[in-house]
Amino acid sequence: MSILIENVSKKFGKQIALSKINLEIPTGNLVALLGPSGSGKSTLLRMLAGFETPESGRIWLFGKNATFFPIQQRQIGFVFQDYALFPKMTIFENIGFGLKIQKKAVDAQVHELLQLTQLENLSNFYPHQLSGGQKQRVAFARALAVEPKILLLDEPFGALDVKVRKNLRIWLRNLHEKIPVTSILITHDIREAMEIADEIVLFQNGYVEQVGCPQEIYEHPATVFVQNFIGHSVVPSNTSDKQISFLPYGRK
Ligand code: ADP
Ligand code: MG
């Protein structure tokens, strides 16, 4: 078990962001956190990364109580919606930034990451010379450079147009298959979650409404809220769409 979230709650002033969350995320899974804006998804991710601490409850990472572990001790990579690249560094330098090993090892590892993220030809470019999709792949490569055991992705494709998004989500699923990592992806795009996640966690108002594989969520929504959430955004308008809306990768 990679991640065990036990009874975690968090308030900001009077605002309840998370209310007694219990969640298990098995090693190697790609899990999507889905739900409306303000439902607590980012707060939970930031807590896993160590940017926030829970008010109550515990977070276990690989069997250790990591609730108050500092960020560096968590072996986590984080990718944000806005890329957050260093503008004055080349792509190569951006990717190598977090590596605190010898020069030679850095070079070898960055080359490997450039290859993995299909950016070999862009290593001497600067971020402003890249498209949004390319920049986000650099952000992924930079997050992976420190060999994280857990990859946290907060709406990584939110700023990209629909076509790029669609390609990148398949690319992400393939990347996840290639490396030994547990990934958590925040999205408000139900179709994205359905297509690439092993498991979906549906949030509302700081609560977990339902956890299940995409097919379970789609076929057996546990509450009216889930039914509406799925229904409004995903009910396909034709049969072929319906057939592809079940992920090619999910657990049976
Ligand atoms: P989501 O990512 O699902 O959109 P968030 O986790 O960002 O939701 O937010 C959950 C709730 O907590 C919201 O009501 C939000 O306004 C509040 N919140 C999040 N971060 C802060 C903060 N740093 N200060 C005050 N309120 C916050
Ligand atoms: Mg958010």
Question: Care to describe what's here?
Answer:
It is a single chain. The chain is of the alpha/beta class and 252 residues long. It has two domains: 1-75 and 149-235, Rossmann fold, CATH 3.40.50.300; 85-147, no CATH class. Helices cover 35% and strands 24% of the residues. Helix 5 (162-178) links the parallel strand 7 and strand 8 (182-187). Helix 3 (103-116) packs across helix 4 (132-144). The chain is globular. The two termini are 19 Å apart. Residues 235-252 have low confidence and may be disordered.
Topology:
Elements: E1 3-12, E2 15-25, E3 30-34, H1 41-49, E4 56-61, E5 64-65, E6 76-79, H2 91-96, H3 103-116, H4 132-144, E7 150-154, H5 162-178, E8 182-187, H6 190-196, E9 199-204, E10 207-212, H7 214-219, H8 224-234, H9 239-244
Parallel strand pairs: 3-8, 3-9, 6-7, 7-8
Antiparallel strand pairs: 1-2, 1-4, 4-5, 9-10
Helix pairs in contact: 3-4
The structure holds adenosine-5'-diphosphate and magnesium ion.
Residues 12, 15, 17, 35, 37-43 line the site of adenosine-5'-diphosphate.
GO molecular function: ABC-type sulfate transporter activity; ATP binding; ATP hydrolysis activity
GO cellular component, one term: ATP-binding cassette (ABC) transporter complex
Protein name: Sulfate ABC transporter ATP-binding subunit
